[in-house]
Structures are given as C-alpha cells and as structure tokens.
C-alpha cells in the first residue's frame, strides 16, 4: 500500500478534483428525488403549474450539474488509472533490469510477467472502481440518512437500519473473500508458468509424445484456478441476492410506514417517493461498493507482490561513487587502461582473475575455485572443459551477473565491483551460449550494442561473422527477425549474434560456445576473420571443440571449476593430462 500511495502522490490534485466531481454526482442523485417530492406535494396541494415548472427547471439544472460531475469524474478517473498503470509498470520493469540472475530466480519469469501485467491491471481496476463506487458511499449514506430524517424521523431510522444491515453483511462476505482472492492469484501464477512451459516446449512435448501428460498438468492448474474463481463468484452471487432482497424489503417497509404516516397527516405524500429513491440509491451504491470492495483484498495482494519486487535490494549494485574517472573512454568508446605509463598497452591485462572463487547461493560446493589467469589485449584466451565445469560462469562473473565469493576479477586493472555496471558492460561484447535475437529487423539487432554504427560497419561485422547469407536475402539488412530469431537456423542465429557483438566496439569479446553450430569450414574462416577484427581487444572463447581453440594464445583447462592447466595447445599436450584426454577423445570421435 505504501508503494501505491507513493505512485499516487504526483496526482494529488487530480484526486481532489475527482472527489469534488463525486460529491457533485451524489448530491445530484439525492436532490432530484427531493425536487420530485416537492413537485408531488405542490400538485397534491393544488398549486398552479408555475411553481411545478419552477421545480422542473431546478431539477434540470441539478441533473445537468450531476451529469457533468459524473462524466468529468469518469474521464479523470480513467486517465489517472492509465497513468498510474504506466508508472507502476515502468517502475517494476526498471527495477527488474537491476536484478542479478539470482534475484530473477527468486520470482521466476512467469511470475515476473504476471506481476508486471496482470497484478498491475488488478490494482488499476480496483483503484478506479473504488474511486467511482466506494468513495461516494459514505457521502451517499450520510446525506441520504439526513434527507430521510428531514422528511420524517421514522423514515430516517428505517433507512439507517437498512444501511447497517447491508454494511454488516458486506463486511462478513468480504472477510471470506480475501483468502479466496489470494489463492486465485497464486493459481494464476501457476497457470502462467505451466502455459509458458507448454508453449515454449511444444516441440519437445510432441517429440516425446507427452501431450496427454501435459494436458493433465494443464488441466489440473486450470481446475484449481476455476474452483477458486467459482468460489469467488458464489460470494458475489450471495451478495447480489442479499442486496436485492434488502432493497425490496426496504421499499416495502418505506411504502408501508410512509403510507401510514401520510394517511395520518404526519408526512407529506411526496416524502414517500423521495425516501424510496434515497433508499434505492443508498442501497445501490452500497451493493456496488461491496462488489468492488471484494476486489480490494485481491488488489492488496497484488500491491504486496509489486512491493516485493520494488523493495528487493539487488544482489549486484554499483558502489556509491563507482563512476570511475580513472577509466576515461578513448575515441572508439573503449575504456582506457589506468595502468601506469611504464606498462605498455600489450602487457596490460584487459581481464585479470586473481584467486577468484565463486559459489552459487543455493549450492553446497564452489562452482569455480581459485582461478588465476589474465586476458591481454590482442590475444585470444580459450576456456575448455567438460559440461558443467564452470566455463559459462566465468563469462557471467566478468559481466558481473554474479559477484565472486572470494578473490578478485579486474577489468583493465580495476576490480569489476568498483566499476559502474553500465561502464563495465559497455566495454564488453558478449555472445551468450544461447543465441538470442530480438523481433524486428537484422539491422535493429546488429545496432543493439552500437546504435551509431554505420551501414558499412554493420556489413563488415556480418562479413567477419561469416553471415554472407544476409546479403542474399531479398531485404538484406532490413529482413524481418521473428521473436527469438526463430525464422533463422541455429547456425545463422549464432552468426548474427556474433555479428551483433562485433558491431560493438569493445575491449573484451566473449564468445560463449558461440561456434558450436558452425561447420568446420565456417568455424575456421570465422576465427581467421575474427583475429583481424578484434586485434585491438582481448578475446575470450569458451568452447567444447578443441579445433576451435587450437590456435589460441593460451588455453585454460577447467575441471570441476578448478584450473587443470593453462598454456598453449603444445604446452598442454605435453603436461596437462586432462587436456590430452579431451583432445584424444575428440580425435577418436572424429
Ligand atoms: N543459477 C544456478 N544456480 C545453481 N547452480 C548453477 C546455476 N547455474 C549453473 N549452475 C551450476 O554451475 C555449474 C557450472 O555451470 P556452467 O554453466 O558454468 O557450466 P559450463 O561449463 O558452461 O557447462 P556447459 O558446457 O554445459 O555449458 C554447473 O554444475 C551448474 O549446474
């Protein structure tokens, strides 16, 4: 709630305006029956047409003012709701950009999507409904009861009794509804998770013939959600029936009591119509408010879920004053080394691991242990090792998706934890293990890391990445890319991802198993072209195939997160049994 009020703060004036329009609307709704009663009383007393017409004119003015209030209120409310929704979504999205991989895992992708879209929608609609339906209730009740008392004390007591009865019934129903709505939101998260898995993994499901199994899983999630929704709707139905019964009983009571009072001359005949209308209006508003208030527990749960995201302290944060003036950029946007002048550029390590150790928060053992190596400008460092040996984790640590548990990683002599994350990542071009392209055009994707790149630079990056196929496409650089790049083959996606990285001017290029889908000829041609294109930077290649890294300046051999060897291919063939095993097994397979 605290967070929601913060979002509401900039719109204080609009809120006050909305309240005034609500007042106008409610006052109009109650004054029209009062004027009707006056007209009836005038007619019953046999006064002429002029005073009745006069009352009619007053009624017209009141109706116009009330209509203006209602219309303006609705407009302001709709606009406020849309702006609040936008502000909340932007805040949640911006916050999610600061999350580390571990922070994301706390929520899960499906829940993040539900929280950003569905939860904020629920907050928005509950807010609009509350302003339009709940805000007028106290005003309507107080004014309505006062007006009824003005006509006759008995009528006042009657209306008060009905109001108390309905508010009590509403209170108990809402108390029962809160946990149901909480459950409903959790089930919605689960439906989203299962649905996402089923849609993204549809080919695997079909290939393994698991349609029936998945149908069952989906069915159970839908059933749980449906059962809670039915329970909630039953409560709505109960509330609806109670309110209709209350309205009818109160009208009957008013007609009976009012008739007796009018018959005995204690009350004017028009009073019966007026009080009946007051009661109907009050009960109508209470009924609508209860329908809306029932949504409040759900909205509160959604607010809590939004607050969970907004209040989370990101695991990885920039240090206060992390902006590093010691790392000015050169003309091409690369960070310049803060190394002393005596150190020549070639000797300055772009990346340096010093006894770096890392353990995932939920793991029992270190994923990487005591790694020490350096990647220098103009050289290629390769990392090879078995599956799960920690190769990709090294790339993630350099990019600060995680922080080392012990030891240190430096970029151009500065601990990466002392650099602003933006500055750090700006100086690195990264090709992730899973090639991912964004929907749009090839050009949009290539410009992702370097929006100012010229067309020639983009074509050059494509050529280096052996993506000549782009030139053959009818639309060339403007060719459409589907979400995730699904309209390209695995190898094409990899090459486009490599071209995207190359289009960015960086101090360090990281290729995480990025050549795996390439045939041997393309792989060799790409590595040859890469040497020239990245000669001003350091290159880190993570690979499974020995042929990809054979000519690297140094090769780090990883075994269970530990360095089993570091050297050139020839060195390692002489003294690293783990490397020799890898080479032999791949030769045998070949
Ligand atoms: N988020 C995580 N939480 C816990 N453990 C993880 C997480 N991500 C990876 N691991 C574990 O860390 C280890 C190293 O993973 P990593 O992805 O670095 O391996 P890799 O050598 O790149 O493997 P591959 O060659 O299969 O890509 C693995 O045992 C993996 O199970």
Automatic annotation (TrEMBL):
CDD domains: ABC_6TM_Tm287_like. Pfam families: ABC_membrane, ABC_tran. The chain crosses the membrane at residues 53-78, 126-148, 154-174, 235-258, 278-296. InterPro entries: AAA+_ATPase, ABC1_TM_dom, ABC1_TM_sf, ABC_transporter-like_ATP-bd, ABC_transporter-like_CS, P-loop_NTPase, Type_1_exporter. It is found in: Cell membrane. Keywords: ATP-binding, Membrane, Nucleotide-binding, Transmembrane, Transmembrane helix. One of its GO terms (molecular function) is ATP binding. Residues 320-342 are annotated as: Disordered. SUPFAM superfamilies: ABC transporter transmembrane region, P-loop containing nucleoside triphosphate hydrolases. It is a multi-pass membrane protein. Residues 16-298 form the ABC transmembrane type-1 domain. Residues 351-585 form the ABC transporter domain. This is ABC transporter ATP-binding protein. It comes from Enterocloster alcoholdehydrogenati.
């Amino acid at each position: 709630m605290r967070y929601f009020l913060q979002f509401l703060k900039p719109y204080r004036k609009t809120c006050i305006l909305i309240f005034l329009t609500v007042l106008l609307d409610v006052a109009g709704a109650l004054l029209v029956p009062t004027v009707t009663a006056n007209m009836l009383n005038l007619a019953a007393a046999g006064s002429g047409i002029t005073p009745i017409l006069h009352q009619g004119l007053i009624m017209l003015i009141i109706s116009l003012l009330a209509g203006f209030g209602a219309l303006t209120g609705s407009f302001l409310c709709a606009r406020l709701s849309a702006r609040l929704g936008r502000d909340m979504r932007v805040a949640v999205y911006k916050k999610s950009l600061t999350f580390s991989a571990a922070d994301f895992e706390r929520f899960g992708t499906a829940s993040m999507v539900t929280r950003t879209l569905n939860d904020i929608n629920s907050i928005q609609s509950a807010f609009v409904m509350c302003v339009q339906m709940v805000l007028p209730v106290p005003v309507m009740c107080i004014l309505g009861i006062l007006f009824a008392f003005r006509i006759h004390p008995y009528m006042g007591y009657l209306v008060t009794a009905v109001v108390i009865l309905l508010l009590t019934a509403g209170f108990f129903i809402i108390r029962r509804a809160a946990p149901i709505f909480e459950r409903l939101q959790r089930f919605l998260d689960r439906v989203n998770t299962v649905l996402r898995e089923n849609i993204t993994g549809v080919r695997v499901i079909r290939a393994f013939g698991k349609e029936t199994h998945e149908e069952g899983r989906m069915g159970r999630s839908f059933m749980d959600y449906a059962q809670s929704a039915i329970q909630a709707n039953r409560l709505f139905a109960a509330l609806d029936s109670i309110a209709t019964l209350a309205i009818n009983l109160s009208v009957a009571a008013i007609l009976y009591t009012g008739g007796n009072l009018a018959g005995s001359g204690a009350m004017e005949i028009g009073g019966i119509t007026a009080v009946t209308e007051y009661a109907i209006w009050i009960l109508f508003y209470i009924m609508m408010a209860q329908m809306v208030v029932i949504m409040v527990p759900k909205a509160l749960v959604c607010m809590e879920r939004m607050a969970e995201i907004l209040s989370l302290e990101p695991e990885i944060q920039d240090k206060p004053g992390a902006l590093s003036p010691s790392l000015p950029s050169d003309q091409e946007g690369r960070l310049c080394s803060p190394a002393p002048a005596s150190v020549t550029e070639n000797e300055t390590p772009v990346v340096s691991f010093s006894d770096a150790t890392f353990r995932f928060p939920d793991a029992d053992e270190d994923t990487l242990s005591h790694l020490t190596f350096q990647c220098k400008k103009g050289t290629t460092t390769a990392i090879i090792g078995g599956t799960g040996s920690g190769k990709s984790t090294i790339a993630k640590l350099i990019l600060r998706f995680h922080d080392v548990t012990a030891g240190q990683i430096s970029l151009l002599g500065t601990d990466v934890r002392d650099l602003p994350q933006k500055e750090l990542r700006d100086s690195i071009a990264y090709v992730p293990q899973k090639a991912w392209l964004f929907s749009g055009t090839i050009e949009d994707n290539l410009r992702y890391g370097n929006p100012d790149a010229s067309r020639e630079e983009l074509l050059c990056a494509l050529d280096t990445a052996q993506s000549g196929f782009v030139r053959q496409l009818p639309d060339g650089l403007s060719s459409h890319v589907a979400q995730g790049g699904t309209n390209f083959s695995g190898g094409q996606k990899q090459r486009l991802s490599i071209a995207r990285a190359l289009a960015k001017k960086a101090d360090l290029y990281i290729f995480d198993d990025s050549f795996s889908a390439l045939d041997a000829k393309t792989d060799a041609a790409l590595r040859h072209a890469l040497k020239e294109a990245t000669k001003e930077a350091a290159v880190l290649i993570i690979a499974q195939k020995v042929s990809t890294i054979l000519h690297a300046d140094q090769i780090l051999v990883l075994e269970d997160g530990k360095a089993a060897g570091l050297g050139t291919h020839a060195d390692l063939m002489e003294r690293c049994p783990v490397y020799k095993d890898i080479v032999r097994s791949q030769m045998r397979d070949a």
